[in-house]
C-alpha cells in the first residue's frame, strides 16, 4: 500500500521519538509543570509556558541537506519570564503566574510576536534577533565606559559589525484589568488586528495596539449569582471569518456568535448541543460533558470539542449533533467515582488538528496520547516515555484492557497512573511533527517517512 | 411479595448498573458520601470554581472578625488542612510560606 505524503493517515504515519526536553528527575517542582504548548504559523518555532510564568521558545534547525531524511531538531531559541505572581490586595488573593495560553501572531517582519496570558493579564511579547552591534563610538569605549572628552581628537563614524546571535524578548503591550474571573482562552482574529480573551463569565475584544480599553462582547454573569448554572470554558475566533467566534460551556454546549449581529453577543447565532437521553443522566453527566477545549479546523468548516471522555467533530452547518465522535478512554466511565474523589474528573484536556484536518489528537492518562484518523476511522494510542527514546525507532502502539483477561503488553485500567496526564499537545501546521507535554517534559515526535 | 427473583424495582436497578456503569459509579459515590446532595451544576459548586486562588492574611478582615467574635475563637482551619479556603479567616499562623524566587526553566537547560 503506497503511503502518500500528507495522506494524514494517523496509522499510515509511523511515529518516532525525536527529542525530549526537561529534567529527568521524578521530583517535579511546581513551577516546571508545563501549562501550554503552541507552534507558530510556520512551525519553525515552538513555544511552551509553565506554571512558573516562564516561556521557552524552541526553533527548528534548518534542514540538513546531507542528512535529508530527518527534519531539523528543535533547540532553545529564547526563554523569558512572562508573568510574575501578583497580589490582589482588595480580595487578598494571589494571582498565579501560570501561563494559561500562548498564541502566536503571524509574522509580519523580522521579529516574532506572541500573546501570553495568565489568569488576569495578557501580554504581547516581541522576540527579535540581534546579530550585529555598533562599534567605534566617539565618546564611549568598547566596554561602554565614557571617554574623557578632552582626549578625543578625531571623529569617526560608528559601524555595525557582526556579533553572536542574541535573541531578545521584550513586552510590547500589557493588557490588564479587564477580567474579574480567570482567563481560560485567548484567540487572535483573522484580521490580525484584534483578539479575544475569555474568562469564566465574560469575553472581551481587544485591539492589539490599544491596552487601556477593551470591549465586552459576551457576558453570561447572572444578576443573581445564585442563579449561575454554567461557565465559559473556552473560546476561539473562526480562522477565516473575522466576525465569527465560538465559546464552549461547562454544560457541554457551544455557541457560535456573529459580531455583525450586535455589539453584545449574548444571543448566539448558533447553539451546538447533542441531545442527551434523560434516562442515562447521572451525577457525573454534567461534569463529564463540560467542554475543556474547542478548536476550529484549519478549513473553518468544522470545529472539534473535547470533553472528559471523548472528542467530537461538529459541522458548523449542523447544530443538533456532532458529525463524528471519538472515544478517548471510555474505560474510565466505570471509574468515575474514584476520578471524582481524586479530582481527575476535572482535568482539562486539550485537542488539536493536523495541518490537513484529517487527523485529530488529544492526551490521556499514563502519559498516553491518542490520534484519530477521520478518513480511515482508525485510532492509535502512543506513550510519551523516556523508555522509547531511540531516535527513528517507531513507537509501539499501546492498549488499555478495560476488563477481563489482560493480554500481554496490555495495561489494565487499574494500573494507569493518573498523575501522568497529557493535557497539552500541538501539531506542526504543515509537517507530521508533534509536540506532546507530560507534566514537566516536552516530547517531540516525527514521522519516520520524512 | 414474590419469593422468586428480584422485584420489578430491584430488577431495574440491576439493569441500570449493567447498562450504565455511570449509574453504578454514582451509587458508589452516594454510598461513600451520603450527604452529597448538591448537583454538580449547582451555583455553589460553580462559584467555588470561580474563586480559585490562594487567600492570604487580610489585616482588615482579621480584626473585624476578632472584634465581632470578642471572646469566642475565630473559625480556624482544621489542623490537617493546608489550604485556606471558604469562610475561614486566615491568621498569621496559617499563612503559607511565600514562594521561592524564580529560576530558569529546566526545558531550556
Automatic annotation (TrEMBL), chain A:
Belongs to the phosphatase 2A regulatory subunit B family. Keywords: Repeat, WD repeat. This is Serine/threonine-protein phosphatase 2A 55 kDa regulatory subunit B. InterPro entries: PP2A_PR55 (IPR000009), PP2A_PR55_CS (IPR018067), WD40/YVTN_repeat-like_dom_sf (IPR015943), WD40_repeat_dom_sf (IPR036322), WD40_rpt (IPR001680). PROSITE patterns: PR55_1, PR55_2. It comes from Nannospalax galili. Gene3D superfamilies: YVTN repeat-like/Quinoprotein amine dehydrogenase. One of its GO terms (biological process) is regulation of chromosome segregation. GO terms for cellular component: glutamatergic synapse; protein phosphatase type 2A complex. GO terms for molecular function: enzyme-substrate adaptor activity; protein phosphatase regulator activity.
UniProtKB/TrEMBL annotation, chain B:
GO terms for molecular function: protein phosphatase inhibitor activity. Residues 1-45, 71-109 are annotated as: Disordered. GO terms for cellular component: cytoplasm. It is found in: Cytoplasm. Belongs to the endosulfine family. This is cAMP-regulated phosphoprotein 19. It comes from the Eukaryota. One of its GO terms (biological process) is cell division. Interacts with SNCA. Interacts with PPP2R2A; the interaction is direct and this interaction inhibits PP2A activity. InterPro entries: Endosulphine. Its main location: cytoplasm. Keywords: Cell cycle, Cell division, Cytoplasm, Mitosis, Phosphoprotein, Protein phosphatase inhibitor. Residues 7-29 have a biased composition (Basic and acidic residues).
